[in-house]
Design goal:
single chain; 329 residues; alpha+beta; six-stranded antiparallel beta sheet; four-stranded antiparallel beta sheet; globular
Length: 329
């Protein structure tokens, strides 16, 4: 059999002679860090492919786990559905798994989607890389879920200035961690609520560097430690918190990697964590219905939990007879 190329007959054997040396060269080079090799008949004994055949192969850019992490992370962004579909299709293609794309199902653009969101990510990335301050308007929600800029007491739209440090997903939300110039601590802002974002034209124009917020002066800021002490992104320092939990450690280690745990008996564990106090309050309240967590210290956190419990008891005191919470107390 002959193959035609530019009108000239090229035999299959001739093509092999040209192709195989190129493959061996690429195998030695591993271009872009991608492994190139050949699968022989003997290698197919335990093959999982639906149609296993010998031949040359090139390793995909992403393995399956990387593909899913990237694709599922993109879906968390709640961005424009067409943009997300195109992005995820590229990720699946680079993993050699385009045939699996249909399993994702239909994606919808959120009703209150901010059309500036994707452009803002690009601007924030540039600002972070070049250490440039930013200005912006920050939105809240109208009664129908529409994003509207925050206003001051006189009804004027507020304008903010900040030093951006990092973009990060946390609990399904995309945050900018930054220093807002009117505050003395770190802020955690929802990226989808930014409007009219502008970046300072000068590099290194930050009012404060990230390392200036390090509780240990003279050392680099530790992101893993900082966020590990905040089950929910919140400002204020992390403090030692003492608690006890019954029957399971999942609520502890799902949220606090560095927890110190001692088993007291078959059902009870004594736990110390270092965490932001308000973030720990929110964390504990989500497990209140299970009645497995008891906060022992600090007293201020115990007092807050007691006050919240009293408020809820008062609010729902007459629910049994009226079917509605008591809003008059």
């Amino acid at each position: 059999m002959a193959l035609q190329r530019f009108g000239l007959p090229i035999s299959l054997e001739s093509r092999k002679k040209r192709f195989v040396p190129i493959c061996h060269t690429l195998q030695a080079m591993q271009p872009f860090g991608r492994k190139i090799g050949r699968i022989e008949h003997k290698d197919l004994k335990h093959a999982e492919s639906a149609d296993p055949r010998p031949g040359w192969y090139i390793e995909p850019i992403f393995d399956t786990a990387q593909m899913r992490l990237l694709a599922d992370g993109a879906i968390l962004s709640r961005s424009d559905s067409e943009y997300l579909h195109d992005l995820i299709a590229k990720v699946y293609a680079f993993a050699g798994q385009s045939s699996q794309l249909s399993a994702l199902g239909k994606m919808s653009t959120p009703r209150n989607y901010n059309r500036e969101f994707l452009n803002n990510i690009e601007l924030l990335n540039d600002a972070i890389v070049h250490e440039r301050a930013i200005t912006f308007r920050y939105c809240t929600y109208d009664v129908d879920g529409t994003l509207v800029p925050r206003k001051d007491a006189d009804g004027n739209v507020k304008k903010y200035a900040a030093d951006p440090y990092r973009l990060m997903y946390r609990n399904g939300k995309y945050y900018l961690i930054c220093h807002m110039h009117q505050h003395n601590n770190l802020s955690y802002l929802h990226v989808e609520r930014f409007r009219d974002l502008a970046v300072n034209e000068s590099n290194h124009s930050l009012m404060r560097t990230l390392d200036s917020f390090n509780p240990e002066p003279g050392t680099p800021f530790d992101w893993d430690k900082h966020m590990g002490e905040r089950p929910y992104p919140m400002d204020d320092k992390a403090i030692p918190i003492h608690l006890r939990i019954k029957d399971t450690l999942e609520p502890i280690y799902d949220w606090f990697d560095a927890a110190q745990v001692t088993q007291l008996d078959k059902h009870t564990y004594d736990v110390w964590i270092t965490a932001n106090e308000k973030a720990t309050l929110w964390w504990a309240l989500q497990y209140a219905d299970d009645r497995i967590i008891e906060i022992l210290s600090p007293p201020s956190l115990c007092d807050t939990l007691r006050g919240d419990g009293e408020y809820l008891a008062s609010l729902y005191a007459d629910v049994g007879s009226t079917g509605l919470p008591n809003h008059d107390s």
